[in-house]
Amino acid sequence: MKKNGRFLENFIHGVFLILGLITVGCVLLITVYLFISGIPAIREIGLIPFLSGTRWASTAAEPQYGILPFILTSVYGTAGAILLGVPAGFMTAVYLSKAAPPKLRSVMESCVSLLAGIPSVVYGLVGMLILVPGIRKLFNVPDGSSLFAAIIVLAIMILPSIIKVSVTALDAVPKEYEDASLALGATPVETWFRVSVPAAKSGIAAAVVLGVGRAIGEAMAVMMVSGNVPNMPGLFQSVRFLTTAVASEMSYSSGLQRQALFSIALVLFLFIMLINASLNFFLKRDKEV
Q: Is the pLDDT of residue 67 over 80?
């Protein structure tokens, strides 16, 4: 019996190890492929002209491959979505975990799960049919397809990730922490924000990381509401993100244009890796402190 149990345990351990190595191998394979496919265009165009150029005209008689508008649009769009989505998602998570009645919490959690399961194209379709005309009428602009519309759609799309992970982290805080705070005379609200939230800080930070990843990597919904025009970013101007730049031209690209699209994908990949590494660095530093 002991031998069989040990063999089964070693077998399961080996399966988990193999699956973990496969995951790491996939990441390494994607990284190597992006570098191999993206470096030639950067070498031919030039790193500085590629990153700092303000005009993208890949199909012109004299093509130009400047992706600065895409980079700035992605940065502004992600930052705007985080500024809108994180506070809303965080406060909703605190309410669901600490204050909501059980029946209301059950209903709201079901709605959040449904929100997470809606396909990106549906978000884009609703935004294109409702949000874009609403922005055009409300702000009296020629076209509602803009960076502002993309920010709102992205903020809504990252809510489920932030809410669900934050609720899980807040629920995991030991009840003794809150009981001790209440026994010392703190109000429930003070206890939630001065005891429970700091104790769940790592989980909430993980929720924000997931939200950032969702906002940066979204393509279809953003393409449908942003106008998909390679302009320098303006709040009520049609723009193009890094993701939509790749998605909109890859189907008919060839030669240097196709290589440049892989270079954009490489920049996007490095951008996401930099954000994740920075967040992990600050989280580890806070734990050490």
A: yes
Give the largest CA-CA distance in the chain: 77
In the chain, % helix, strand, coil (3-state, to 5) comes to 80, 0, 15
DSSP-assigned beta bridge partners for residue 72: none
In sequence order, what E strands does 11-87 have?
56-57, 64-65
pLDDT at 93: 93
What gap in Å lies between CA 254 and CA 230, rounded to an integer? 19
- Residue type at 13? H
Q: What is the dihedral of CA 25, 247, 122, 222, to 10 degrees?
A: 100
Q: For the chain, how big is the Rg over CA atoms in Å? A: 23
Angle at 22 between CA 20 and CA 28, to 5 degrees: 110
CB 164 within 8 A of CB 210: no
Residue 274, pLDDT score: 84
The pLDDT of 163-186, averaged and rounded, is 90
Closest CA to 230 of 9, 60, 110, 91: 60
Q: Can you tell me the distance from the alpha carbon of 41 to that of 153, in angstroms, rounded to the nearest whole number? A: 32
User: Is the per-residue pLDDT at 200 higher than 80?
Assistant: yes
The model carries a pTM of 0.88
**How many CA atoms within 13 Å lie on the side-chain side of 103?**
0
Distance, in Å, from the CA atom of 2 to the CA atom of 196, rounded to the nearest integer, reads: 43
Query: Nearest-5° angle of CA 254, CA 69, CA 57?
Result: 35
SS3 (DSSP) at 160: helix
Q: How far is CA 25 from CA 15, 21, 22, 273, in A?
A: 15, 6, 5, 16
Q: Can you tell me which residue has the tokens 């320098």?
A: 232
Q: Please tell me what DSSP assigns to residue 14.
A: H
Task: Name the residue with higher pLDDT: 3 or 169.
Answer: 169
